[in-house]
Write a sequence for this structure.
């Protein structure tokens, strides 16, 4: 959880560990068609039922073009042992540039996180467009009006990011829960009393934490030597959070101007652009720090 005292963005945090790569959810198929009965004398032969059109499947995160993570993992191990900012910079820049194949491909790896971010940005838009009470009504959460903001966001989490056992879903849920924790520690009031600026900060905090989770899953899952001292591990995780948030938050806030006017299609495009820009910013900051 973060340690910020006023909700202008967290200053540190723990990054959860995760499981395996995701499998797409199984969508419901067409209903079974009973076999035709015997035809009456002289009646035309019954026709076989048409084969139902194949059901669409939800896309996997794009992991097909991932390059070699060995170099970034080695630098990440060095950073975890020493706390070296230059090693952290080399790790994250190498992760984006050579590990994933560039900022665009890194962004496409954020499958469930991008879907969650689209739902969350839709909430931010509605909050600014129609106000908090109507926003909750649209989510069938009208009974939560006036409740503390962290409690409301826990319910929104279940709406926009239901639980799943795969790594991609775990990254999104973990990022959302840590963002809610940051807000709770900051002592904000009710959901109804939040300002548009606080809603936007919450969204950008989620983006940063989901990127941290993806980096940790790819670089910290195996082959990384971490210190035995728990305090040192927590310090390394906090440094990673500060690095990602510091490189992205101030640069991305302008992309949320006019969010109340965005259509659903615009929201999808905006989220994709924000993730791609965030990874590019992280890579540039990493190269400057290396």
């Amino acid at each position: 959880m973060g340690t910020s005292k006023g909700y202008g963005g967290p200053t540190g945090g723990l990054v959860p560990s995760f499981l395996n790569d995701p499998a797409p959810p199984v969508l419901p198929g067409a209903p079974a068609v009973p076999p035709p009965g015997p035809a009456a004398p002289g009646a035309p032969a019954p026709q076989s039922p048409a084969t139902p059109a194949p059901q669409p499947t939800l896309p996997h995160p794009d992991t097909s073009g991932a390059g070699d993570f060995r170099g970034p993992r080695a630098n990440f191990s060095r950073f975890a042992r020493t706390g070296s900012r230059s090693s952290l910079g080399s790790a994250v820049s190498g992760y984006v540039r050579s590990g994933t194949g560039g900022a665009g491909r890194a962004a496409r790896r954020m499958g469930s996180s991008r879907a969650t971010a689209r739902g969350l940005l839709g909430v931010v838009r509605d909050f600014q467009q129609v106000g908090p009470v109507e926003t909750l009504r649209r989510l069938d959460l009208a009974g939560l009006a006036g409740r503390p903001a962290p409690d409301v966001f826990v319910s929104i989490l279940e709406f926009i990011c239901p639980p799943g056992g795969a790594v991609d879903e775990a990254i999104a849920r973990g990022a959302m829960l840590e963002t809610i924790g940051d807000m709770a520690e900051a002592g904000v009031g009710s959901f109804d009393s939040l300002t548009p600026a606080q809603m936007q900060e919450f969204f950008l905090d989620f983006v940063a934490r989901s990127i941290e989770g993806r980096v940790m899953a790819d670089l910290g899952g195996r082959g990384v030597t971490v210190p035995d001292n728990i305090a040192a591990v927590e310090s390394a995780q906090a440094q990673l959070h500060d690095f990602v948030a510091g490189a992205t938050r101030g640069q991305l806030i302008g992309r949320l101007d006019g969010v109340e006017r965005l259509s659903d299609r615009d929201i999808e495009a905006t989220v994709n652009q924000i993730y791609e820009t965030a990874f590019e910013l992280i890579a540039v900051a990493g190269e400057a720090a290396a």
Q: What stands out?
A: The two ends are 27 Å apart (CA to CA). The chain has one domain: 70-289. The longest helix spans residues 264-289. Residues 70-289 form one domain.
